[in-house]
Amino acid sequence: MTSAAAVRLGALLVLVSLLAAGVRVGLGDRLVTLRSLDREVPPVLLRHAASEVKRYLRPGEPVLLVVRNARNRAQLGEWQTALFPLPVVPVAQGEGPAAVARRARRLGARWVICSLPAARRKLGLAKIRRLSDQWGQATWLCAAPGESR
Amino acid sequence: MVVSAGADVAAALGAAGALALGSALLGGFGRRLAPLRLGEAFLVGTGGAAALLVLFGPVLGRRSLTGVMAALAAAAAAGAVSWIVGRKEPDRPVERAPLSSTEMVLLAGLVASAAAYVQLNATVPVASDGWHVWSAKAQLLDHLGSLRTQRFDGESRLGWYERYPPAIPLAEAVVARLRGAFDFGDVKGVFPFFFAALLLGVYRAVRAFGSRRLALAAALAASAMPALSADYSATGFADMPLAAVIATAAAVALEGGAGDAPSALPWLLGAMLFFKSEGMVVAGAAAAVAFAAAWGKGLSWRRARPWWPLAVMGAVRLAELAETPVRDPQFRAVSASALAQGIRRIPTIVAEGAKMSLHLNAFGLLWPAFVLSIFGLARPSVRAARAVWFAAALAITLEMSAFLFTRFPVPAHVTSAFGRLLAQLAPAAAITVAAAVAGAGGEAREPAAPESVRIGE
Q1: Where residue B456 falls among pLDDT bands split at 50, 70, 90?
Q2: Mean pLDDT of B47-61
Q3: Phi and psi of B408, rounded to 5°?
Q4: What ipTM was reported for this prediction?
């Protein structure tokens, strides 16, 4: 085989490998991809949940979001986007019920979004409405501490 | 379907505005751009509009988006008048030779593959970065009319992304404004136009030195590649649009010859800065290679002058960054201790990066072929493609260096991010592989037609 023929064969292999990958991913894995998007990626679920949350909020009213700790706020921006332009204010699960109640009163927030069962118990949050299951955990809209429902 | 029919129309209007603005910036009014140059004008127009958005910020405030849309509309109106009364001949020869049977098969595959991408893009919702980075910025821009008006504190996720460039959010926000409401599905209508520009760029780049059959095969390879047509490219990420700019810049460079500065190349490198942060690295690598090539021919003011668009757009982007003090907390600040720790990470970064480049379901065998292709670029007919190879290799090396400073576990960060960096440069890899094939003989470009029969020159 001449070097030119070897180069062309190699290039043909590259093209075939890409076509095979395109067919496999584009067609064969599409259903899997869509299913995994439903399961792992929050936009669809979160946007649906956000539309439910908005029913409880007055125009411009902030809502608190319980996050695991100050450095782990993966969900914050996603909720901020989903509830835009309503303000979403993070509170760490380590803050006590009194501190969270104070912040809620100061901000005029009546609702808290929380997907952390331990934090709900610790902060004494009353579950009002189940919103969605994100990353395998149920997310709840809860009454802020001190708010009577 | 997540993209409505009305959104497709709005996206087409926005693309037409960008096309007209790009034509104006490239001095295209009064002459008709050849079909192969439409992608180039669209991408330059998109980058130019993003630069305008930044420039309008301090002056127009919350009316910045309206100002950019007015500029796009004015360019579209002027372009339409120019199209009607201007020269009828395209500014480049248009290929009219009949297609061979092989070329028809390749073209059919290309059309089917592109249609599959369009369908996938219209079916899959925005996800991950496509959602909470790019379309979230578009939502912010649509709501506030300017990205300069800070809305969220620096610790929030949106705060991190304030430094991300505005071209894709702007294109999406234009759709929202034209539709009268923001919708996370509708904004995806913009992406097929970037995909078309990507395929035009790859075809054009290979056509600079190779046969039409080879160019069609390279475009088909880019179109079928899952990294460019599925996964993150179908979920609203900005990597595929940046890949389109890179492919088109490579085409312009190859048509003009390495080392020279053809008029559109500085514009395209400038546009890169406004598509993704990595665009700054790629533009820097490409400019460095062009500078090195020009060094051999002797540097002069006359040679440097055509690069003013890159200097202006770079200054605008740097000014925007300087005004946004929020730092991306995914990376540590550069310091002696961070560097020392980073150097110990190099073997892991290289190993994980190599593993990612061999991900068959994303890139097929493209990247091993890219590495080998440098040995096939010695012939004079394809020697210019070496500049593309070196620029791509330099950009990959520079981009990998970012992982030296990551706060995440290195394998996790490389796995989640490096594939997208490779996707951005995949068109350049496809072009250099095609150049190696042309250099080996049999697929070189046919000799140019005599001057007397060339159209519009």
Answers
A1: very low
A2: 95
A3: -85, 165
A4: 0.84
First to last CA, chain A: 82
* pLDDT value for B40: 95
Beta carbons within 8 Å of B169's beta carbon, 6+ residues apart: B134, B135, B137, B138, B140, B141, B147
pLDDT in tens, A131-143: 876 666 788 899 9
Tell if the CB–CB gap between B436 and A11 is shorter than 8 Å. Answer: yes
pLDDT at residue number A22: 87
Provide DSSP, B213-241. HHHHHHHHHHHH-HHHHSGGGGTT-SHHH
Alpha carbons B67 and B62: distance in angstroms, whole number:
10
Chain A contacts in chain B segment 173-212 (CB below 8 A): 184
CA distance B240 to B238: 6
Give, rounded to a whole angstrom, the gap between the first and last alpha carbons of chain B.
45
Q: How far apart are CA B18 and CA B222, in angstroms?
A: 24
Question: Which residues on A lie below 8 Å from B440 (Cβ)?
Answer: 3-4, 7-8
A-facing residues of B in 258-317 (CB < 8 A) are none
A11 near B CB under 8 A: yes
Does the pLDDT value for residue B457 go beyond 50? Answer: no
Instruction: Compare all CA atoms of chain B with the CA of A35 and give the residue at the minimum distance.
Output: B124
Does A28 contact chain B (CB < 8 Å)? no
Query: Phi and psi dihedrals of A130, rounded to 5?
Result: -80, 130
Q: Give the pLDDT confidence of B20-29 residue by residue, as tens digits.
A: 999 999 886 7
Chain A hits for B369, Cβ within 8 Å: 10-11, 14
Count of beta carbons in the 10 Å neighbourhood of residue B407: 12
Q: What was the pLDDT predicted at B165?
A: 93
Render pLDDT for B182-234 as a digit per residue (tens, 0 to 9).
888 899 999 999 999 999 999 999 999 999 999 999 999 999 999 999 878 88
The residues, ordered by sequence, that sit 6+ positions from A129 with a Cβ below 8 Å of its Cβ are: A52, A56, A140, A141
pLDDT at residue B425, rounded to an integer:
97
Token look-up 């599409």 returns A30
User: B239 with B14: CB under 8 angstroms?
Assistant: no
A24 with B128: Cβ contact below 8 A:
no
- What single-letter amino acid sits at B251? A
Do the beta carbons of residue B392 and residue B423 sit within 8 Å? no
Confidence (pLDDT) at B82: 84
Q: Is there a contact between B127 and A37 if contact means CB atoms under 8 Å apart? A: yes
Confidence of residue A43 (pLDDT cuts 50, 70, 90): low
CA nearest to B21, candidates B84, B83, B90, B77: B77
Give every strand in the sheet of A137-143, ordered side by side. A88-92, A63-67, A111-114, A137-143, A126-134
Compute φ and ψ for A114, nearest 5 degrees.
-150, 130
Residues of B in contact with A8 (CB under 8 A): 437, 440, 442-443
